[in-house]
Task: inverse folding
């Protein structure tokens, strides 16, 4: 065993420090005490007739007196106190009436500010307004035209379904039930960066560090060698310790990613982190702030998430898909005769990229995930 670590040791360094049996001395790291409070409740019997001068309703205190215009505090998702940093931008700090009055309005031609004529509702060019009266071009089968650098996921067949690649620094999530290959999806995503000479970080809340390295090595991906070369960091964290230290991790992660020079990061799985919070508003706030820290780190990130038990198309808590730039759904598909069960993948969304809307079969093999782009489910 290694010597006990002090409270000043960095969580990332503690996680990477190996003991004789491959585990960290989590008991030596005193968890940060965090005050939890729910400030998202208001008095339901407050006077709802009070209005501001601009016409916006005002909140009233418990005694029924007039107060400030309604706002949602520092949680952009309505979940109460969020990031401890008071300087963070709060998209809901302005009351609705003020925001509405400052919003641009459509001009007579349908455009905003008179810059581009459009349809009657201001949603872009009107049909027939293009060159020689032609309709605006569509991009169903074309690459998205932009200057954003793009990357491949690294999964055969799936990359063919994404026209032009995924924008760099995207936050993506792979949603699926048990056995659909979410961990393999994350490992294969990271393997692509390593094969291209880049570096990556794999944070696992479910498996041990040794198990992750062994799984990748068995597929011939040489993760142990990449780790020895200093281009890969595999970090296993206990979900409880991560939840207790989430504020510190959230603040340190951008700096650590930059110092390590990571091109890609995988977190497997975000569902275990979500389960640490019983209150829905607290859960939304913490997950939002954590995903925002990943975006601030400027690293292309892949999260994995358990699917909801009632439907395979949404995550367990229905949060991460709304915060992510790209969503991949892995699911079981059973025929009407129930004689065969197959795995299928679909792309729900990718911001700033065109992609196929089809559901395609895939297989899990010793070489990873292979998507059959030209095949149908049954």
Result:
């Amino acid at each position: 065993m290694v010597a006990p670590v002090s409270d000043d040791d960095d969580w990332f360094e503690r996680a990477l420090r190996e003991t004789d049996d491959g585990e960290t001395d989590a008991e030596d790291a005193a968890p940060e005490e965090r005050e939890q409070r729910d400030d998202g409740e208001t008095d339901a019997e407050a006077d709802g007739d009070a209005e501001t001068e601009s016409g916006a309703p005002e909140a009233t205190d418990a005694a029924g007196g007039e107060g400030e215009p309604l706002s949602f505090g520092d949680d952009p998702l309505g979940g109460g106190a969020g990031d401890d940093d008071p300087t963070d931008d709060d998209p809901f700090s302005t009351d609705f009436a003020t925001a509405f009055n400052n919003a641009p309005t459509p001009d007579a031609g349908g455009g905003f500010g008179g810059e581009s004529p459009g349809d009657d509702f201001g949603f872009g060019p009107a049909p027939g307004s293009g060159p020689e009266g032609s309709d605006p071009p569509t991009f169903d089968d074309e690459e998205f035209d932009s200057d954003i650098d793009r990357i491949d996921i690294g999964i055969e067949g799936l990359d063919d379904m994404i026209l032009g690649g995924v924008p760099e620094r995207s936050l993506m999530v792979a949603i699926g039930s048990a056995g659909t290959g979410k961990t393999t999806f994350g490992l294969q995503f990271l393997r692509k960066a390593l094969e291209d000479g880049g570096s990556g970080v794999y944070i696992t809340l479910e498996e041990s560090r040794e198990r992750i390295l062994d799984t990748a090595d068995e597929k011939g991906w040489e993760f142990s060698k990449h780790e020895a070369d200093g281009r890969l960091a595999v970090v296993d964290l206990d979900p409880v310790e991560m939840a207790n230290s989430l504020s510190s991790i959230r603040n340190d992660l951008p700096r650590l990613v930059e110092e390590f020079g990571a091109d890609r990061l995988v977190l497997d799985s975000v569902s275990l982190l979500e389960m640490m919070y019983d209150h829905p508003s607290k859960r939304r706030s913490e997950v939002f702030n954590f995903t925002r820290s990943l975006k601030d780190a400027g690293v292309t990130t892949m999260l994995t998430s358990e699917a909801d038990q009632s439907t395979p198309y949404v995550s367990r808590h229905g949060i991460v898909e709304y915060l992510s730039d790209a969503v991949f759904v892995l699911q079981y598909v059973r025929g009407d005769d129930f004689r065969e069960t197959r795995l299928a993948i679909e792309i729900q969304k990718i911001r700033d990229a065109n992609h196929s809307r089809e559901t395609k079969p895939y297989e899990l093999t010793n070489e990873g995930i292979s998507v059959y782009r030209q095949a149908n489910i049954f």
User: Anything to note?
Assistant: The domain at 150-371 is CATH 3.40.50.300 (Rossmann fold). The first strand starts at residue 58 and ends at 60.
